[in-house]
Amino acid sequence: MDVSKMNFLVADDDSAMLEIIGAALTTFGAARVVKCPNGAAAAAALSDPQQAFHCVVSDYSMAPVSGLDLLRAIRMGRYGHVPRELPFIMVTVSGKEQVVKAALALDVSAYVMKPVNQKSLNTALNRAAGRLLMVKPPEDYAKVTIGAE
After folding, report:
1. Residue 40, SS3?
2. Cα–Cα distance between 40 and 44 in angstroms, integer?
3. H/E stretch holding 14
4. What is the reported pTM?
5. What is the rounded distance in angstroms from the CA atom of residue 56 to the CA atom of residue 53?
6. What is the 3-state secondary structure (H, E, C) of 126-141?
7. How far apart are CA 127 and CA 71, in angstroms?
8. How far is it, in rounded angstroms, from Cα 24 to Cα 43?
9. Which overall architecture, per CATH, does domain 7-142 show?
C-alpha cells in the first residue's frame, strides 16, 4: 500500500507503542503522522476541520475515550468533515470476544494484536486498504454495546 500521500492519526496511551507505530508509519513513507497520547486528544484532532486524515490507528483501551468510542463516533458521522468510511485500525492486547465483536459491529477496517511490529502493521494497512466499506445508518452504530475490557 502506498502511504506517501496519506495522513495518519495514531492514538495510544502507551507512549512506547505510540512511538513504535508512528515510527513504522514514517518508515513506510507516510506523508504525515499525528500522534495522540489518549483518546480525548484523538477526538480533539478529529474534531478539527483543519485536519484531514486518511486512516486512524488506535489503541482499544484508553480512558476516558476508548478506541471503540472513537470508531463509533466516526461511523456515526459525529465529525462532520471526516468520512464515515474512514479506514480505522484497532490495536489491542485484548482478544476478548466482546471487544472483537464490538469492533466488528462498528466496521473496524483491521485489527492488530500488540505487540505491534512493522509486518503486522503493514498487513493491517493492506487489509484496511482492500476493504470496501458500505457504512450502515448511524442508528445501527449507536446500538452497538461497548463494554469494559
Report:
1. helix
2. 6
3. none
4. 0.94
5. 7
6. HHHHCCCCCCCCHHHH
7. 17
8. 22
9. 3-Layer(aba) Sandwich (3.40)
pLDDT at residue 1 tops 80:
no
What pLDDT score does 149 carry?
45
Sign of the torsion angle spanned by Cα atoms 136, 73, 50, 45: negative
Geometric angle at alpha carbon 81, from 29 and 1, rounded to 5°: 25
Angle at CA of residue 108, ends 104 and 109, nearest 5° = 125
Which of 57, 70, 73 lies closest to 11, judged by CA?
A: 57
DSSP string, 47-114: H-TT---SEEEEES--SSS-HHHHHHHHHHT-STTS-TT--EEEEES---HHHHHHHHHTT-SEEEES
The amino acid at residue 9 is: L
Q: Strand order in 55-59's β-sheet?
A: 32-36, 7-11, 55-59, 88-92, 110-113
Domain ranges of the chain: 7-142
Cα(106)–Cα(41) distance, rounded to whole angstroms? 21
pLDDT at 148: 54
